[in-house]
Specification:
The protein is mostly helical. It has 2 domains: 2-138, no CATH class; 139-181. The chain contains 7 helices and no strands. It has helices at 2-18, 27-37, 43-55, 60-102, 107-138, 141-159, 165-180. The longest helix is centred in the middle third of the chain and has 43 residues, at 60-102. 23% of the residues are buried.
């Protein structure tokens, strides 16, 4: 059990320390360790946790780490995962914030941050493409196509500010019940 807790802590430490671009950017790191490396979760179960996490209020990354930790090792796994995920951000914030503030108008820092934004978008695209195939395997081609249509509708609705993210997620849940029940 101690080894599994250590592995959870290190996996989440890696995700928290190496992911850029917000919570969605850490999905590939968590997936690599939790599904591919250690086999704690299946593709389908990982996708389900991401979907449940997306539907709940609160900090996405922390909720996902907590759910994975709980699934793998119970309450102790929950604690190990959340601490591992949070520690890099806390330490980096404390150590780098002053440096970033002092150099925030320099061309090299602005250029680096611009590059990181594009890299983060790539990580988010990867996460999306990892979740969709698991969903495609679960249902019919028609349901999968309707799910993709829903994804586009939510994107457009948020892009043009037709609805809030909360309304989009509530509507998506209701649509899911109608489509897949």
């Amino acid at each position: 059990m101690a080894l599994k807790l250590w592995q959870l802590f290190v996996a989440m430490l890696k995700a928290g320390g190496l992911s850029w671009g917000g919570a969605q950017g850490l999905i590939p790191f968590m997936y690599a360790d939790c599904v591919q490396r250690y086999g704690w979760l299946t593709d389908e179960h990982f996708s389900e946790l991401v979907a449940v996490d997306s539907a709940l209020p609160g900090i996405f990354a922390v909720k996902l780490a907590a759910m994975i930790g709980w699934e793998v090792a119970g309450p102790a796994g929950f604690v190990a995962s959340v601490l591992g995920l949070s520690l890099p951000g806390i330490l980096l914030f404390m150590g780098l914030f002053q440096i970033i503030q002092a150099h925030r108008d320099t061309k090299w820092l602005l250029s680096m941050l611009n590059g990181l934004q594009y890299g983060a978008a790539g990580l988010i695209a990867f996460a999306t493409l990892k979740v969709l195939p698991a969903e495609a395997d679960r249902g019919s081609a028609r349901a999968f196509a309707m799910g993709l249509g829903l994804m586009v509708l939510v994107f457009v609705s948020l892009k043009f500010k037709w609805v809030s993210p909360a309304v989009a997620m509530l509507g998506s849940g209701a649509f899911g019940i109608l489509l897949w029940l």
